[in-house]
Design a protein that fits this description.
The structure holds two protein chains of two kinds. By secondary structure, chain A is α+β, with helices and mostly antiparallel strands. Chain A has a single domain (2-144), classed as Beta Polymerase, domain 2 (2-Layer Sandwich). Helices cover 43% and strands 22% of the residues of chain A. In chain A, the strands form two sheets. Chain A has a five-stranded mixed sheet, with helices on both faces. In chain A, strands 1-2-8-9 form a four-stranded mixed sheet. In chain A, helix 6 (146-156) packs antiparallel against helix 7 (159-172). The mean pLDDT of chain A is 94. The longest helix of chain B has 20 residues, at 28-47. Chain B is 61% helix and 0% strand. Chain B has one domain (3-64). The mean pLDDT of chain B is 80. The termini of chain B are far apart. By secondary structure, chain B is an all-alpha fold. Classes of the chains: A alpha+beta, B mainly alpha. At the A-B interface, helix 5 and helix 8 of A face helix 1, helix 2 and helix 3 of B.
Chain lengths: 198, 70
């Protein structure tokens, strides 16, 4: 798999689609009819080739009105998904509106699942406003700017998160905007020098 | 190792992961209980980000996307 930076985003050439990619693509194809989104978290490192699995795919969605969420809910149910959290659309919307996450999986399964949350801070909005299209196999999925994703992974700070940050740094180090990366690390109060990042 | 071979091997690894997920032993309720600790930690970390205001130079970089113009 070759990573190519283009004006339109990042192109992945020669990527062999794995079942997680197919799961994410099928879900985001539905989601994008209703809302702007970015996929964040561990899947971003996996998308760019890191050899690890994940049970859930984190997705930030631009805030929807209750009526808009109902349309998304109905579409997902119709297409064979269900919400792992208990409750109907009103309860699920209240959870999202209150800053909680809700999980969506294919009917009859629990993992993998998509963990949805509404954008709730300026960093989330920045991710959506500046999202990067990752293009592969005539499909696309949106992720936040890689500089923010690296800083955020360092902020989360678990062993797995730091390794994801390092992986993204190694893949993109020649392509990143170093000033932007440093700005995000400063905003999040993290340092990368202990890991050779930055 | 050529990139394409690497990508194919990653796909095989994740296919194995999916295969084992088919035998996942937990119900949705049990699964939610298992992940609740991780979710709580994440919520605590994210709560600290809610008050961050981005500097003007970053705010100006924003390019509202289609949904935002709705």
């Amino acid at each position: 798999m070759e990573v190519v930076y283009a004006e339109s985003g990042v192109e992945l050439r020669g990527k062999v689609l794995n079942p997680l990619d197919k799961f994410v693509l099928a879900f985001t194809r539905l989601l994008e009819k209703f809302a702007d989104y970015v996929v964040v978290g561990g899947y971003v490192a996996i998308l760019f080739g890191r050899s690890r699995g994940t049970e859930d795919v984190d997705v930030i969605v631009r805030r929807l009105e209750a009526s808009e969420f109902l349309l998304l809910y109905n579409e997902l149910r119709e297409k064979g998904y269900y919400f792992v959290n208990p409750g109907g659309p009103s309860e699920l919307y209240r959870m999202l509106d209150g800053g909680l996450r809700v999980r969506v999986a294919v009917q009859g399964t629990v993992i993998p699942n998509v963990e949805l949350k509404f954008a709730e801070c300026e960093l989330d909005e920045y991710s959506l406003d500046n999202r990067v299209a990752v293009v592969f196999d005539d499909e696309r999925v949106y992720v936040p700017p890689i500089e923010l994703q690296i800083a955020y992974k360092l902020y989360l700070g678990s062993e797995k998160d730091v390794e994801d940050a390092l992986y993204l740094w190694e893949v993109f180090r020649e392509l990143l905007n170093p000033k932007l990366l440093h700005k995000f690390m400063e905003i999040l109060g993290v340092r990368g020098d202990a890991y050779g990042i930055g | 190792m050529p990139n394409e071979v690497w990508s194919r091997q990653q796909a095989l690894l994740i296919e194995s992961f999916f295969e084992s997920a088919r035998n996942f032993a937990l119900s949705p309720e049990e699964y939610l209980r298992v992940v609740s600790y991780r979710e709580k930690r994440l919520r605590e970390l994210e709560a600290k980000l809610k008050h961050i205001q981005l500097p003007e130079e970053l705010r100006q970089r924003g390019r509202p996307t289609a949904n935002a113009r709705k």
